[in-house]
Specification:
The chain is α/β, with parallel strands linked by helices. 32% of the residues lie in helices and 23% in strands. The strands form four sheets. It has an eleven-stranded mixed β-sheet, with helices on both faces. Helix 2 links the parallel strand 3 and strand 4. Helix 4 packs across helix 10, helix 12 packs parallel to helix 13 and helix 15 crosses helix 16. The longest helix is centred in the N-terminal third of the chain and has 14 residues.
Length: 491
């Protein structure tokens, strides 16, 4: 597309150079710039894109978007705007011909449950022949394409490209996890959501947002950005049992669908029964009631199911269709995922890395009445330090034996992180083992018949970050290898 067409919507854009130049692609990372690309100079916490203009030009950039005066290079066109980040959202959406206006887009935000809920929505839709694409923590996928995710919510340059590719692949629905960081930084500006889903809000990311109020307000942007008109139907799906839902309801003009265990919820679960093989409950909705039996375990998964069901009700699925699809669900990678090699005790791997999600996972495991509940848990480095002692207390309160170990220490000293977790503890039913592999192996060696081991924190992740180096590490593989070593080989 010609530059003159791309920048047409921008109110204050000062161009120096050729406005007729053809733009072949757009990005703010100089390392991925190719011949004919536009390079957008954005400022981050640790670096400034304006410093990488020479590298972008060397790689073939023909247009540079800046928000300050820079040295001009011959043959390069410069576009100066008040905010390159905001301009980028407009330009990229225009470059890809507003792909989300051609999709039915469902966004899911909240502290816990985003991945499971997006996967459930995808399953409900695809099970009944609605082609669906997913963008989330684990991967980006749509019919004919699959890629491991780098961010929960990609930058606009990649995000709109994925949506454009989905449109080309005749995808009908886009379902995406929307992080608080993405909302605060404007990554989803330009995305035309039909439905926004809220799972819950509990402590996380305070290293970034600083306060729970700021964190909650960031999540609320998704609902405010649904729009203020009724030319097309928009829906806000809110957890009736979470107090933040009241604020989000006030902040949106969309039609409300509430879900939960609260009797005031429009979509609710009653008669909940949780066993080691799954969960059953009665689903009550404005269009009728039915009983559901699912292989997903735990009350937190009842909430995830209710959120997903609420999101697809406006799409015309019947209760019979919902029941059929839900009862065929197998589970989500790293979300209360069992590791089974024929051992006489249970091993569960879960992504629980916040106080609330850890409490949910351990409470669910406790409801299965194990002989002994064993927890392996750590906290990530360079992240919210205030949750470390809180998570330790939860593990100590709910588990019979706790192994505190490393998660992704990043640039922090792993021992210092563990000191933050355990420094205040007076009870003695815990062991500190810095090496995560050793902690998992020790826990398995000490487990007996009827025990449950919950390995918390990493879930689906297949890496560990120590310093700035990312190395392969998969809790499921480590556990399975140890079981095989101990002679358990049945699948």
């Amino acid at each position: 597309m010609k530059l003159i067409e791309l920048i047409k919507p921008l109110l204050f854009a000062k161009v120096t150079g050729n406005t007729e130049v053809e733009v072949a692609g757009i990005h703010n990372d100089s390392r991925v710039i190719e011949e004919g690309y536009m390079f957008v100079c954005t400022k981050g916490a640790n670096m400034d894109g304006h410093d990488y203009i020479p590298q972008a030009i060397e790689r073939g950039a023909k247009v540079i978007v800046v928000e300050q005066d820079v040295e001009l290079a011959e043959g390069i066109t410069y576009v100066q705007v008040p905010s390159t980040t905001r301009a980028a959202s407009v330009i990229v959406d225009r470059f890809y011909n507003s792909p989300t206006s051609k999709l039915k887009l469902i966004g899911v935000t909240g502290t816990n449950g985003k991945t499971t809920t997006t996967n459930l929505i995808e399953h409900l839709l695809t099970y009944h022949q609605h082609p669906t694409g997913v963008i989330g923590t684990i991967e980006i996928r749509y019919p004919g394409y699959q890629e491991e995710a780098k961010l929960t919510t990609p930058l606009c340059y990649d995000l709109q490209r994925y949506f454009n590719d989905m449109v080309k692949a005749d995808v009908e629905y886009g379902v995406m996890e929307v992080s608080s960081h993405a909302l605060h930084l404007g990554r989803v500006h330009g995305c035309k959501f039909k439905t926004a889903v809220f799972t819950n809000l509990t402590q996380d990311h305070l290293d970034y947002h600083k306060t729970m109020n700021a964190y909650g307000q960031a999540k609320g942007l998704l609902f405010a950005q649904l729009g203020n008109t009724y030319d097309e139907p928009k829906y806000a799906v809110l957890n009736a049992d979470d107090p933040w839902s009241e604020a989000y309801a006030q902040g949106t003009s969309a039609q409300l669908i509430t879900y939960g265990l609260n009797e005031k919820a429009l979509v609710r679960a009653t008669n909940i029964v949780i066993t080691a093989s799954g969960t059953s409950f009665t689903l009550e909705t404005p269009i009728g009631s039915t009983t559901l039996q699912t292989s997903l375990i735990g009350k937190f998964n009842v909430y995830n199911l209710l959120a997903a069901i609420s999101a697809v009700l406006p799409e015309g699925l019947t209760l019979a269709q919902i029941k059929e699809a839900i009862e065929s669900v197998k589970g989500v990678a790293g979300r209360f995922e069992a590791v089974q090699q024929g051992q006489p005790f249970a091993i569960v791997v879960d992504y629980a890395h916040t106080p609330d999600s850890l409490e949910n996972a351990l409470t669910t495991a406790r409801q299965l009445e194990p002989r002994k509940l064993i927890c392996i848990v750590g906290c990530g480095g360079d992240r919210d330090r205030t949750k470390r002692p809180i998570m330790a207390d939860i593990a100590m309160d709910l588990a019979d034996q706790v192994y505190f170990t490393s998660d992704n220490p990043r640039t922090e000293d792993p021992s210092a992180i563990l000191d933050d977790m355990t420094g205040h503890l007076s009870a003695e039913h815990y062991t500190v083992i810095v090496d995560r592999k050793e902690a998992i192996e020790r826990a398995i060696e000490g487990a007996g018949e009827g025990d449950i081991i919950v390995i918390a924190g990493k879930g689906h992740e297949t890496y560990q970050i120590i310093g700035t180096e990312k190395t392969h590490f998969d809790d499921r593989e480590v556990a399975r290898d140890k079981l095989v070593e101990l002679g358990f080989t049945a699948n």
